[in-house]
Write a structure and sequence with these properties.
Layout (H helix, E strand, L loop, with lengths): L11 H4 L14 H19 L8 H8 L6 H25 L1 H20 L4 H29 L5 H29 L4 H4 L1 H15 L11 H4 L4 H20 L9 H30 L20 H30 L5 H6 L2 H20 L3 H19 L11 H26 L3 H38 L5 H9 L9 H33 L10 H4 L16
Pfam family, one: MFS_1
Subcellular location: Membrane
GO molecular function, one term: transmembrane transporter activity
């Protein structure tokens, strides 16, 4: 691989940990396809949970109360989902892929049941957080195992298929969520995971290959986990989202809780970066320090690679527009246009179907010849055009046919962008770093999406408080924040005012993610490489410890 391995300022060999313990060997025949089926089933379930709730939020809030807290149903899942992606990748390096996958499936299925039996909004939010821990493990193991068990000649098509499964979950999520809440109890949104999770768990237990190199589960093995790094990253994420979700609504932006939350966020992330650099250095040197026994939770040596670093930042920014539209577009249809949850999900099909098509096409194209830089830039350009067009949508509750064309552009852009980032990252690292890098790419993308959802809610709260406080009475404002569907009981003039304000808030959300996507486009230029590695050559790349001094041709 064309990578400079002798950085004068920061020796990569000083930071590289010993090879992971738990790599799997490529598989062929029926065992490969049974394994792939279990992986894709788990992938579908875990990613479905990020979108299926989007069209059920208003119904859930009407039943349990607390519409102003309803975003936490999604944010709580994504928060732990984000925080534990790399954790699972690293734990699987220590304890093995199979045991880690079984644990993740069991946690996910158990807390899906718990979500379904929740009686209060607070219970549901807490159980969703634990469900996200299991979902993170499933996604992380799928990314790691697929890269290891798939023969080199099949990696390209399988990557495209995996991206298609991810996009398929985006398609099914809003439609299923709307159909379930319209025709049955919203609780079946979570009960739906029980048969699928049970089947995937059985397949993994009976057919999944075991890791010969895994470590025994004991105190020494647990000492290898980077607990301080995990804790610092979770603190940084939790306090950031807490400030964004509660600022301007439950607490003022200059209130002590919000200010302290931002301070803690900054301090935690600075401490996390410093700690990870320290742990990586002492780990490779095998000193007597207690930290020398830990495997760093974040691969800091990878940020010395221009292309990987650029793809990580681009993935973070790419998460914003995708999740904002997945969550708030169906809400726009329901609140502003007065559609049912299932009708809202159906009207998102152009966006979702073309996301799947773009993801699959991107994988197939790059499997033949790696042009992932160009497919990435095309995808981001399509997003910019689509988002620019979306900002022109009327705020009067009028559905115009042109918006479906805008969704087509956005869908193709999302699909090709996400697949391209996976391909770029996959081909720029060696086997020892593969699982942790795939986890990092997904983690930063989901973190970006989670922050995007929080910013979207901040904008809605701002517009509602600013523009409706003089229109609605105190009781009506309280009812609106408890359940947005309560506006249907308002006089016609006030219903129109609510619809208009929410329409302006939604357009403001689109403008924000438009600017973020423009920044992502600029950063995407940093992934250019004159002679990129193709999938067919990936298996012949020398490992980083080989000592070859290949120069970066980017």
């Amino acid at each position: 691989m064309a990578i400079d391995r002798q950085s004068q300022s920061f020796q990569q060999d000083e930071l590289r940990p010993l090879p992971p313990q738990a790599h799997l060997q490529p598989m062929r025949g029926w065992k490969l396809w049974v394994t792939i089926f279990a992986l894709f089933l788990g992938l579908l379930l875990s990613t479905l949970e990020t979108t299926i709730v989007s069209t059920a939020l208003i119904t859930i809030a009407s039943d349990l109360g607390g519409y102003d807290k309803s975003n936490w149903i999604i944010v709580a899942y994504l928060l732990t989902y984000t925080g534990f992606l790399i954790v699972y990748s690293r734990c699987s390096d220590i304890f093995g892929r199979k045991s880690s996958f079984i644990t993740a499936l069991a946690i996910f299925t158990a807390f899906s049941i718990a979500c379904g039996v929740s009686r209060t909004m607070e219970q549901l939010i807490i159980f969703r957080a634990f469900q996200g821990i299991g979902g993170a493990g499933i996604y992380s193991m799928v990314m790691a195992v697929m890269a290891e068990v798939t023969p080199v000649e099949s990696i390209g098509p399988v990557t495209g298929l995996m991206s298609t499964i991810f996009a398929l979950s985006s398609i099914l999520g809003p439609v299923l969520g709307g159909a379930i809440t319209t025709n049955a109890s919203w609780r079946w949104v979570f009960y739906l995971n029980i048969p699928g999770g049970g089947l995937a768990l059985a397949i993994v237990i009976w057919f999944f290959p075991r890791n010969d190199g895994r470590l025994p589960i004991n105190r020494l093995s647990f000492n290898r986990i980077d607990w301080p790094g995990i804790l610092l990253s979770l603190i940084g994420s939790v306090f950031l989202l807490l400030a964004l979700e509660e600022g301007g609504s439950a607490f003022s932006w200059d209130g002590s809780l919000i200010v302290v939350s931002f301070i803690v966020t900054g301090a935690a992330w600075i401490a996390f970066i410093a700690w990870e650099i320290y742990v990586a250095m002492v780990y490779s040197r095998r000193t007597s320090s207690f930290a020398s026994k830990m495997m760093p939770v974040f691969p800091v040596w990878l940020i010395r690679r221009r292309i990987v670093c650029a793809s990580l930042i681009a993935a973070f920014l790419a998460g914003f527009p995708f999740m904002v539209l997945i969550v708030y577009l169906p809400e726009r249809f329901e609140i502003q246009d007065g559609l049912s949850p299932v009708a809202s999900g159906i009207r998102m099909l152009p966006l979702l179907l073309l996301s799947a098509l773009g993801a699959g096409a991107g994988g197939v194209i790059n499997s033949r010849k790696n042009i992932s830089f160009y497919t990435l830039m095309v995808g981001l350009s399509l997003q910019l055009i689509g988002l620019g067009c979306m900002t022109t949508l009327p705020t009067t509750g009028t559905i115009i046919d042109a918006q479906y064309g805008y969704q087509v552009l956005l869908g193709l852009g999302f699909g090709t962008t996400l697949t391209s980032l996976v391909v770029i990252s996959r081909l720029e690292v060696d086997a020892p770093d593969l699982a942790i890098t795939m986890g990092a790419v997904t983690q930063v993308r989901v973190l970006g999406g989670t922050i995007g959802i929080s910013i979207g809610q901040v904008l809605i709260t701002h517009f509602v408080d600013r523009d409706l406080s003089d229109v609605l009475s105190t009781d009506e404002m309280a009812a609106l924040k408890a359940s947005v569907s309560s506006s249907r009981n308002f006089p016609a003039s006030k219903q129109n005012a609510v619809s208009e304000v929410y329409g302006r808030a939604f357009n403001a959300q689109i403008k924000v993610v438009l600017y973020i996507t423009a920044a992502c486009w600029v950063l995407g230029l940093g992934t250019f490489k004159k002679n990129p590695v193709n999938f067919r050559d990936a298996g012949r790349i020398e490992p980083c410890g080989s000592g070859d001094q290949e120069q970066d041709q980017g």
